[in-house]
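step 4 of 6: structure.
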Amino acid sequence: MAQMTMIQAITDAMRNELKNNEDVLVFGEDVGQNGGVFRATEGLQKEFGEDRVFDTPLAESGIGGLAIGLGLTGFRPVMEIQFFGFVFEVFDSIAAQMARMRYRSGGVYHSPVTIRSPFGGGVKTPELHADSLEGLMAQTPGVKVVIPSTPYDAKGLLISAIRDNDPVVFLEHMKLYRSFREEVPEEEYTIPLGKADVKREGKDISIITYGAMVHSSLKAAEGLAKEGIEAEVIDLRTVSPLDIDTIIASVEKTNRAIVVQEAQKQAGVSAHVVAEINERAILSLEAPVLRVTAPDTIFPFASAEDAWLPSYKDIVEKAKYIINF
Amino acid sequence: MEKTKELKNIESQFKTFQILNEEGEVVNKKAMPKLSDEELKELMTRMVYTRIWDQRAISLNRQGRLGFYAPVAGQEASMLGSQFALEKQDWILPGYRDIPQIVYHGVSLEQAFLWSRGHYQGGQMPEGVNVLMPQIIIGAQIIQNAGVAMGLKRKNKDAVAITYTGDGGASQGDFYEGINFAGAFNVPAIFVVQNNRFAISVPVEKQSAAETIAQKAVAAGIHGVQVDGMDILAVYAATKEARERGLAGNGPTLIETLTYRYGPHTMAGDDPTRYRTSDLDDEWEKKDPIVRFRKFLEGKNLWSEEEENKVVEQAKEDIKAAIKKADSAPKQKVTDLIGFMGEELPYNLKEQMEEYKEKESK
C-alpha cells in the first residue's frame, strides 16, 4: 500500500480505469500536457497518449456536448469541469441532456459520463471557484452526486463512478486535495455509490455530513467526547441518492441528529436529509433535527471566507444544544 | 451599419449555391449530382409524401389527435435532400421540426406520431437506426453532433454525424462551440442551418449582423456553404460533398439552406400573420421546392399527374394506418417512466415504484 493524498488517489483511479477499459477517455481544459490545474491528470497523457487524455477548447458546454456524443458512440467519457462554479455554462448538457438520455429514449440510450470537478471553500480562490453547488445537482433526477472526504474513498468511489452507466457528478473538495495522506491500495477496488460510511461510531447524537465538513465534524466529535458526549459521524459520500438505511439506523440508535454542510442553508442536501428523517424516524427523535450550514448569501470574497464557512465550533455548539434540548 | 470593403468582400464570397432555378431549369450543369432516374423520382416522391403528411398532421393536431407538431411544408427540399445524401450508418441529431429526415432514416411514421404525443415509445429508436430523439433545447444537439462525430471517427466507422437547427439556433452559444469543437478536432460532422427566415417571430435580420449564416464557418476554420434550400438537387449535392469531405478527414461543414416554412412555428397557437406579410409568403411560395422539381422531372418525362396522385393516396393510407397503430400503443404508466430513470433505481424511486404499482393496480 502507498500513502496517497486525495489528488493522487483520484489520478490513480483514472489511471486504473484508462488501463482497464480502452473506451475510457479523459478530457477537459488543461488536462493534457499540463496535467490539470490541480495536477489531477498528471502524467496520464504521457502514459496513455493524446487520443485517450486530451485538452479541449475552452468551452464548458462544448465539453459536455462532446461527452454526450462520445457516450452515444460507445465511449466512457470522464470530463473535467475546471472549477464547479463554471457548471452553469454546462448545466444544459448535464441536467437537460445527459440526465434525461435514458428516460427520453425509453431506455435505448444512456450517458455513461463522469463529470469530475473541484469545488469547496477555504482555499481563497477567486469568485465562482469554490461554491458548493451540489444541491442543484441533487435536485436533478437522473444524475448521481458523489463527494468523497478521504483519499481511500476518493479512489474507490471514482472507479465506481467511471464504471456507472448513468451520469455521475464527482465533486472534489479542493481543501482536501493535499491536506493529508492515508493508506490507499495500489490495486483496484470499488466503493459502491449510494453507500454512506460511519466515520466514527457514537451513541448520543448523529452528525450527518459530507465533503470537508466530515473533518470538521470529526474534530467536533473529539471535542464533544471530552465532555462525555459520544457523537456518531456519518459521511454520506454520495449525496444523491442518499444512503437512507444508514442514516435512519443511526438516528434510531442515537435519537438525536444534526446535519452539517458547507453549502448555504436554503433547500439543498441537508434540508433533504432532515425531511427524510422526519418522514421516517420522527418517533425516534428526542429533539428536532437541526442544520449547521453557511448563511444564505453568495459565497463571499476570499478574505471573508473563514468567517462565513461553518466551523467545528458551530458543530459543537449545535450538537450541545440538541443534547440539552 | 456601414461595412468596410474588406468585410463586404468576405461576405460576398458566400454566394447561394443553386442547381435548379424556380422554373426547374438546370442553371449549374457542372454541379449536377449523379442520380439515376429512379433516384430523382424517389426525391420527388418523398417531397410529395411529406407535404401530404404535413397537411394530415396539421389536421390531426387540430382534431386533438396528435400532440406537439412543428409544420414542415416549404422545407421539404432542405430536409429530404440532405437526408438523401446520407448512408444508413450515419447519425442524425434532429431538432423538433426535423421529423421527415428521421423517418426516411428508418424511424416509422407510427413512432414519429408517438413522439409527437409524448409517448415513451416515440423515443425508443430501433436498433441500427442511428437517430437521436428530436431536440427541444435550441442548439443542444449541435455540440453533441461534434461528440458523435468524434466517436464515429475514433471507432473507425465509415460514418458522419449530421445535425439540424434553424436560423435562430445559429445565435446560440452552443452553435459556435459545436462548430468550433468539430473543427478543432477535425471530425466528420455536418451542421445544417435551415434558415427559414424566422425564429418563431424574430426575422433573421435581427439575429445577426452577418450577411449569411454560412460565413460563420470561417471563424471556426471550417467549410461553409449557402445553398438554395428550395432546390433539392443543390441541397443533396452540398450534403454529399460535405459527407465526403468529412470522411476524407478534411473536416466538418456548415451548410446554410435558404428556405421558408409556410405554416406556423408550431401548432401550439403561433400566428404567422403577426410577423410575416402575405407578400413575403407569396414570394417564397413561388420558389416552392415541389413545383420546381415537378417542372424539372416533367421536362425529362419522368413524372406525371397520375404518379403524383399515387404518392398522395399512398401517403394518406400510410398515415391513416400509422395513426391507428399509434392509437393502440399501450397507455403510459408512471411505473414505466420510473423504470427509465437509471440502470439501477435508487431507494427513493424504488419506493415510488411500489407506490405507483399500488395506485395503478386499483
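step 5 of 6: annotate
 - The mean pLDDT of chain B is 97.
 - Chain B has two domains: 5-330, 332-362.
step 6 of 6: archive
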